[in-house]
Amino acid sequence: MYDLHCHLLPGIDDGPVDLDTALEMARMAVADGIATIACTPHIYPGVYENTSDGIRAAIDRFRRELADRDIPLALVEGADVHIAPDLHDGIRAGRIPTLAGSRYLLLEPPHHIAPPRFEDTVFELMTQGIVPVITHPERLTWVDSHYEVFRRLALRGAWMQITAGSLTGRFGSRPKAAAERFVGEGLCMILATDAHHPRRRPPLLREAREAAERLVGSAEAEHMVSTRPAGIVRDLPPAELPKMLSSDVESAIRSGDAASKAGLLARLFSRWSHD
């Protein structure tokens, strides 16, 4: 499996405070079946002033520590990028890294307030050739009142990353319900741990894959943790990766017909439950 949102690097943001904690997280990830992790510290102006060069240097140092201890975990670069006025310039100048140097960028919205021009910001990134991967929308306090915004963004080409722990209930009932809605409606492209700590925010992905399988079947669950993340690392265009929605689900969602959509999803859940 691939985990493309993980705060694994020690002492660089609010992830592990020291090397021993980071190594414990790495061992947990490997034991869980994760083979590749994107190290994605925050880039948050005024709080975490990380840059591409600093992140790559930290990855190189941690990669050597893993090799010295025979921990078989591949690392790629990335960042958990907050919306900021200089976001576009930072990407163009190379100060802000994409996932594994690809066209895909982890984009973190504010947790407690819908940012102004959010949709415009996402679409402007797409005009630059960037595929925004919006992190943990299910955990935003404003997701319920703005769910249609995320649906529109997904249908127009942005990607949604749901947190593994949300789907398994580690963040409580409200994020779990929102995560199940994103996954069940075909709006979740990838699952990732967003791990910060071996116990409080652990790097566990398998349990979420199993939870997704109960909702949407084994093939789609595998796409969320393997096929699509591997495609990101290889910088494949979205058109070459499995679609997030089957044509019938997409048509129902686009139509806005809530009754039809509910009936369709009920039929799909019934089918998946017998897979």
UniProtKB/TrEMBL annotation:
Gene3D superfamilies: Metal-dependent hydrolases. It catalyses: O-phospho-L-tyrosyl-[protein] + H2O = L-tyrosyl-[protein] + phosphate. The keyword rRNA-binding does not apply. Keywords: Hydrolase. It holds the Pfam family CpsB_CapC. Its EC number is 3.1.3.48. Belongs to the metallo-dependent hydrolases superfamily. CpsB/CapC family. This is protein-tyrosine-phosphatase. The lineage of its organism: Bacteria, Pseudomonadati, Pseudomonadota, Gammaproteobacteria, Lysobacterales.
